[in-house]
Structure formats: structure tokens, C-alpha cells
Amino acid sequence: MDARAINAKLRRREVPSEEELRWFANGLANGDVTDAQAAAFAMAACFQSIGTEGCRALTLAMRDTGDVLTWDLNGPVIDKHSTGGVGDCVSLLLAPALAACGAYVPMISGRGLSHTGGTLDKLEAIPGVSTQVSEDHLRRMMQDIGCAIVGATAQIAPADKRFYAIRDVTATVESIELITASILSKKLAASPDALVLDVKIGSGAFMKTADDARALAQSMCDVANAAGCRTSALITDMNQPLAPALGNALEVASVMRLLTGTAEGRLVDISTALGGELLGLAGLAADATEGAARIAAALTDGRAAEIFARMIAAMGGPADFAANWQRHLPGAEVQRAVKAPSAGRIAAMNGEALGLAVVGLGGGRMVESDRIHPGVGISDIVSLGQQVGAGDRICLIHAASEDAADMAEAAVLAAVSIREAPLSPPPLVHERIS
Ligand code: URA
Q: Is 167 a catalytic residue?
């Protein structure tokens, strides 16, 4: 087999066979496929569908280029994937809550991408925490704690690592089938029994239209279910930040307030919806409604907080994090309140612009080598539909300097619109796909 013949098939609008797709995935991992050939394949796949069967074959072939974990645990192995949003620290709440309900959650997570924050960057805002753990360490955490949120090792789906980098620089990320294969090759490498997908739509999401979100959710559900992993997706709203804060340490602080105080708000509602869905899929609850109630109980009765603290300690963080998180989390040099320029209701928030403002403050990366300032960000953010008076605080900026605060303040004021007319905020969960 050779890459030219496979690309020629795509050019003729034919679908390569399973064997050809497997050869291509192996060639990405072992170098038999050149960058030029991979880029041509990616561009062709943006125009010529490889179909559900081809997408399943490519996904599994990419997964099999690296380690595929197997487990011997006393309960189902389950996982969640989000397509990325702003203020999305659901994983930090959900992993320990699911473990408290009898599931095992080896969550392989990512870093910030564009305007969206990364779960690993958030965890590493906690002094001492390292998310790069060995497979042995991950297995011990599963046995002892029931959950771990860690970075992928170089041995997880190496074909995707190379292919994603090529797609990134050739404007070919946007193919639904290539996104499906990329995400699921990594998720399925942890061999979950059940998976829930949080496909986000709105100003802070990558998917801006309902049709695109639905197509991606359906494609990922079809491929994951065909691969033997019980999977469903919720299409959820990302027209405002999920947490009332954006930025790495600030989002961890939001999570700790919920875990150790009153567990309510959008972040909790979405965590219970996704967790309920997962417990239902995994057979740990009769259905998603009963599952949601079990997640809510674990979040409020202190079990999730206790598991979260053990997970942090096992990853090198402070042993007393649950009790003293305020003392441990880093802050920023400058705090600046942003005032509403007029009275009215919060009518819209450009989530992408808010996320980019946090990147501008140093809370995310412009290029891979950038160092993150864990303490910067935006907190105390108002909600859609909230009434404000002229001069009321709409958020608090945490910056490393007055100049950085000036830039973030201008970005926030441009991102938030205030109108006089009443407004009903959009529902949190738009649709369920299975
Ligand atoms: N995230 C991934 O891991 N892969 C994609 O292709 C898009 C988003």
C-alpha cells in the first residue's frame, strides 16, 4: 500500500478500505506517511466523507498506534469529553463525584486551546501538582482513589499527535470525521465502558451552529458505540462562562467553593446532567435522572470533596488542600473591578472574546512554549439576564500589571452587552444525542 494510492481514491471520491486506513494511521505513527501526504489526505477528507464505517476504522487504527489500557477493577470505567468552552471546569467536579458513585474515571485531559482553558493547566495551578504521571501511577490512583485527571503520555495515539499538528497548520482541523477520529482515538485508548460527550454550542464554543454541534455529536456517538463503548452526547449551552470565573487558579477556587460549600449554579447543573447520563449508561443508576440525583448527593455531602483532595495529594499537591485551598492557590498582582457602563440586563457575552482576554492576561498560551501565570483571570462574572445598574461591578480582573488590566478591561467591556429589554437566558442542555 502507499499513501499516493489512498489519496488518489479520496480524489476520485472513493472511500479507502479499512486496511488502507489502518496502513495510513500506522504510517502517520512510524513515518512511512510524509507530512505532505498527510496534509493532502486531511484536505481531501474535508471534502470527501469517509463515512461512519471509514471513520470508525480510522479512529480504531489511530487508537491502536499506541497503548490501549486494560483494567481489572471492581466497577465500570467511564469518562467524559467536552469539546471545550470557557469557565468549563466540569471535569474537576465530575471525576471525583463519579468515583464517589462507584465508577472508575481515568480522565486523560488536555491543555488550553485557543480561547478555551485546559483542565491540566487548571490542576497545575495548585502548587506541586503534576499531571504527567506514569501508567503505574495512574493504575495505583484508580485502585486507591477511583479517579485521576492526567495528561496523555507519548504512547497514547501517537498517530493523532502527529496528524493533529499537521491539520492545525493546514487549516484542516474542521472536518467532523477527522475531529471524531482524533478525539475518540485518544478517549478509546483508556478503554472506557461508557462515555458522555459534552458538545458545546454558542459564543464561547468551537461549534457555533446547532447543525454543526449535532453532526459532531452524532458522528462521535456512532463511532464510539460501534466500537463497543456505550456513548451519548449532550449539546450544551456556551453563551456565557460556566463557572463565574475564568483563569486557572480562579476556576479551581470556584470548584472548591462548590465542593466545600453550597453546590449550586450552572457548573453544578451541567455536572449533574452529564454525570447522571454516565451513571445511567454504565448501569450504576436506573436512568439519567436517578444518576443526576446521585451525583448531586456526592457533590453536597462532602464525598466528592474528599476524593478530590486525595487525588490532588496523589499528584503532588498539598495534603491539606480541601481545608486550606485559599491559602495554597496563587493570586495576581493587580485586581480591577469592571463597572457596567449603563443600567439594564446582561444581554450577551462573547465567550470567545472573554476567553481570549484571559489568554491576553497570561492565563493561556499564544504559542505552545508560553508560560502560564496561574493566578490571572476574571472572576465574579455576572450572568446572562442579570439586572445591573450603571457603575455596578460586572466582573473583577486579576492581572500581572496595570497595563494588562487596561487591555482586559477594554476586552470585557467590548464582550458584554447590556440592554433594557428583559431576556430569558438559554437552557443549559439543548439536546441529547445517542
Ligand atoms: N480536539 C482534538 O483532540 N482533536 C481535534 O481534531 C479537535 C479538537
A: yes
Torsion of CA 260, 262, 266, 271, to 10 degrees: 50
**Catalytic residue list contains 401:** no
CATH number for the domain whose boundaries are 3-63: 1.20.970.10
Enter the CATH code of domain 334-419.
3.90.1170.30
Ranges of each domain in the chain: 3-63, 78-324, 334-419
Query: Which atom of ligand 1 lies at the shortest distance from residue 110's CA?
Result: 3
- What is the pTM assigned to this prediction? 0.94
Ligand 1 centroid–CA 184 distance in Å is 9
Grid coordinates of 400: 500581572
Domain 78-324 in this protein, CATH class: alpha beta
Atom 1 of ligand 1, residue of closest alpha carbon: 183
Divide the 434 residues of the chain into consecutive groups of 10 and give the mean pLDDT of each group: 96 96 98 98 96 96 97 97 93 98 94 82 97 95 97 91 90 92 96 97 87 96 97 96 96 96 90 98 98 97 97 98 96 98 96 94 85 96 96 98 98 96 88 96
Residue 208 annotated in active site: no
